[in-house]
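ingest -> fold -> write
write: protein_1
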Amino acid sequence: MSRPYPLFMLDDNKTLHGIIITWLLHFNDVLDPALLHTSLCRLLEIGDWRKVGGRLRRVDGRLEVHVTPGPPVAYSHTSFSSPIGDHPVANTLPKATPTASIQPGSHEFGEFAPAGPATLEEYLTGDTPQLSLHITSFTDATLIGLSWPHTLMDAMGQQALLRGWSLVLAGRESEVPAFLGARDDALVLADKKEAEESYHLNPLRGWGMVKFGARFTWDLLWTSVETRTIFLPKKAVAHLRRQAMDDIPGEFISEGDVLTAWATRAVASSMPPRPITALHPVNLRFRLPSLINASGVFVQNMAVSAFSFFTPELLKGPLGPIALENRRHLKEQTTEPQLLALLRELRGTYSAGGDTTLLCGEPNALLMPFTNWTKANVYQAAEFSAAVIRAGEGESRTNPPGTMVYHNANSMRPSPTMRNVVVILGKDHGENYWLTGVLQPASWAKIEEEIEKM
């Protein structure tokens, strides 16, 4: 057996220990399951890509990955001799619609996920690889289900996996990018200069954290949430952005700022006046020079938290100022000195498997976590045309053969603390946006009202 691979601070922590991710990819083609399986296994035999195919173990309190002679992927396959539209569950998978729409949530499609471990302990005590693959074949479509412990990778790691897999499948193995940072934490190496700044925000601690926790627990006990999918056509998002830009002449805001403002304002209008703190994972691959210019890919977790703070008064107003406030907060917190200061703050109290949660904002604020996968280009990252046995949908299709039409992510065992969450899953091949929301019924009612206006 080769030398074990270490995990790092942003992988081996209490939050990620509790999350086993399931990821469903919907292709409107019949794909060769054997080719998909063998090409993925081959990818995980190349250099340090073997880290992905190893087994998780805990040694002296720390997680590490052991590469053993066993298969790098746990694989299973189910085949139906009928079209996807005949399946009672698969026929309800979200689809692009002419106008904005709300559709079933990711939790309704769990039967297409791999039947792998549901907890970290099951990985640690068994012989299951980190990555599980379950393929469901129909006569006109293919569903690819993947699962892994969140300690393995984030959304950009998922992008790297799909791209590497696509290259091996296409016979372009020599183009597979180098797997960087397998044994040395690139985030520690990025912080070699003397500290320029201290972390500017004041994290909730002591009585402030107690007040926040009490309010969060109260919400947990007395409010339920529902998971649904939101489809926003390209034109609808462009209209929202124009509307927001008209509110703030001469200023720049991104589509991500606008979607954050739109969702936050809808949630705010569904409850009594209260501050809202939006939590945004910031991917360091795009922020630290040593990572931006890297000569390969990092398949690990590289996101830290940034926060936007919205007052009840602001949230009652037009979209533009809310979007601009979101951008202002993120710009202040995502400079290189501030991100390095945040990493030092986290390292100062870190121990393997420990809590790296850092929250900022008003103790009485509603916390709204946002995750934006748009930069991961997930819809474009998987190019499986080499595995197409039969193309589906004929001339009505809008995507190239061997590419996906929809994807979603879920947790094997969703936590009750997962609430007031919006995940921007990215843009499909028609540049339409897909989102998942885990929101209270009153918030969904407001979002339905907003969608009817589009």
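write: protein_2
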Amino acid sequence: MSATVPAEGDHAVSTQARDLAAPPPIRQADRRQPPSERRSAAMQGTIGFIGSGMIGTAVAGLAVKAGYEVVLSNSRGPETLAGLVADLGPGARAATPAEAARDADLVVIAVPLTALDRLPVEALAGKTVIDAGNYYPQRDGHLPELDSDELTSSALLQQRLPESRVVKAFNNIAFSLIAALARPANAPDRSALPIAGDDAAAKHEAAALLDALGWDTVDFGSLAESWRSAPDTPVYVMPYLGELPAEGVTDFLSWVTQIPGAPVPADTVAKLIDAAVRLPAAATELPNLA
């Protein structure tokens, strides 16, 4: 399995094939590349979730519909996830974080940075790990290596998980739009999400998952560049919302669950990534959802 990691400013935009007999070409935003190994949409595999909040639940729902087994976990114990497991159906079960990591082919981590010290490092060794989190000092406390911009939050996660392969994804979109904007392969209104990581094979694996869930991907480089999809950047949340009401939004969480969202194609995502200007991470504030 191989892929080309683009240099800064180059973005490999890929749609992984659903039909191995006649795979569609990989779409490119900036340059043509040799096609890499494709995966079938009827993927059989297990996705583990450490963190089963709004983002984790949204991704898990799409994964079950796509034919994956999912193993959910949180910090409160498997028994607290019984209702969610019932809602998702027979493709889902609950476990501890260590069990979810051990049993999974790929793991989605969607937890605050305050939970990093409790991650099952050994169980995650050798796994591709999708990091769906963001750094919010108000919630996570101030972390010197992030406040100084020495590291991005995903690079910090990679440091904590030295034997795992971290890929940044799902961190720049409202939870309800993960399902609302998902589309079949080659749909004219299919959207893209940005991904970043240091391991080319892991990014290919993450892109294959996103493709099976209904999303194109824009590979914008390494974890050191993952700030380009962080809060307050051009690609963060707003493009996927569409036009805001003229009277404004007084209850964002309620409003965002009722909108269809606005498709954001891969070429647009690549341009938004290029337009990003790095702001001090220490100044990042939690979004006002009231």
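write: annotation protein_2
DSSP finds twelve helices and nine strands in the chain.
The radius of gyration is 18 Å.
pipeline exit 0
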